[in-house]
Amino acid sequence: MLLDFYEDVNVGDSVTVGSYRFTAENIVSFASRFDPQRFHLSEEGAKGSIFGHLCASGWHTASAWMHCNVAWQDRMKAHETPRRGRWPDIGPSPGFEDLRWPRPVYVGDEVTYTATVTGKRPLASRPGWGLVFMDVVGTNQNGHVVLSFKGKIVFEMFERPKA
Description:
5 strands; Thiol Ester Dehydrase, Chain A; five-stranded antiparallel β-sheet
């Protein structure tokens, strides 16, 4: 799946949007601002926890998904020539479901994020736009899933009705 108009997105299309390496510095920085639990703030604080070592906030892993996703879209816009002479509007998202963090993300882990289209439908309330459903998965360098959710995103149709 490339950055495309609604009509060109197909169920089963999959794209790897990028990877993010979790360092002690970025884990602590994120947690200090947004999720200041002891196992996200220091190795010492994490030792007595269920995790045993400093680990990333689940919200950090989800934010890293968005960072990779937006960077991928920017790369596509900058380096690919659109077949139809312009880029589609993509987004916003009306939400997600079933957010899971099945394994912790530790210092040094590199998480790769992939989205797979699971469905789509035109928006009755917004002619010229469609809703695309996708499963998003983040896997670490060992192939273990560390993040998953079911997302939705609004896509522009190429053939938009005249107002």
